[in-house]
Amino acid sequence: MIVVTGSTGNIGRPLLDALTAAGESVTAVSRNPISLPEGARHFAGNLNDPEGLEPAFRGADRLFLMIPDPALPVSRIVETARASGIRRIVLLSSQRAQSRQDPVLTSMEQTVTGSVPEWTVLRPGGFASNALLWAESVRSTRTVRAPFADVGLPPIDPADIAAAAAAALLEDAHVGRYYTLNGPAAVTPREQVAAIGHALGEPVELVEQTREESFAELSRIWPPAVVEKTLDALGTPTDEERKPSSDTELALGRAPRDFTDWVARNIDAFR
Ligand SMILES: NC(=O)c1ccc[n+]([C@@H]2O[C@H](COP(=O)([O-])OP(=O)(O)OC[C@H]3O[C@@H](n4cnc5c(N)ncnc54)[C@H](OP(=O)(O)O)[C@@H]3O)[C@@H](O)[C@H]2O)c1
């Protein structure tokens, strides 16, 4: 049995579908309820209460672990999973673990790789689904406010991260691997907004924000330290962060999907 954390999210939801389609029985962990594919059961759990997750882990041998808040008690979550019989963990980390040598991410990765015999670390760059932050303003005013309008990065489709996670949970070939995951080509925010407008069949205006304006806006939804790191990656990416990674195809067994593909599947959020 496989436990999926973050099961209501951008990665967790398609991962549930992929695992149940492969015939696996799956426990979907999240605080909120979710409509489930056949073969999955829901466990209402909070990652802030690791010991309370023990019934979700009981009888399972594999875990997809997402840590959506760096303040969560990673060591206790991993220890509860290991003590309950989990042998394989596929960890969602971030490209920043390598490209910025981020100590919080490094520590999280070491907690996992030092605890269970079988692990895979997924290190995605920015998600295509981050564009959903613009959905409300596109719906209401056909406008996007974003910083660094002409800095291009290769966004990864979260459905491709889910596909890589499914492969790592189901196949032995990915054990002990670190995979940097991103999309097939760099796309600037201006190009992303144009792609959304094209799919809508109506122009969408991009209003470029300063870093300070963006910091003030994003700090309303994310911790300030997370916002600073995000703006560093968006505004002054390293050479490594700008380039598509050859790991992505190794992890997926195919080429990753591009941003226009993600837009086509998610355009209803912007109508
Ligand atoms: N966005 C990016 O560009 C990017 C890049 C690299 C790495 N990442 C990593 O991706 C993850 C976030 O991705 P996302 O923003 O796309 O996530 P998301 O889809 O919004 O999903 C977050 C999931 O976490 C669950 N969750 C949140 N707090 C929880 C808690 N205390 N206990 C149990 N479940 C909890 C949520 O479910 P409930 O609310 O129902 O509990 C939801 O299923 C983070 O680990 C981040 O470091 C993101």
From TrEMBL:
Gene3D superfamilies recorded: NAD(P)-binding Rossmann-like Domain, UDP-galactose 4-epimerase, domain 1
Listed name of the protein: NAD(P)H-binding protein
Domain NAD(P)-binding: 6-170
Pfam families, per database record: NAD_binding_10
Organism phylogeny: Bacteria, Bacillati, Actinomycetota, Actinomycetes, Micrococcales
Source organism superkingdom: Bacteria
Organism the protein comes from: Promicromonospora umidemergens
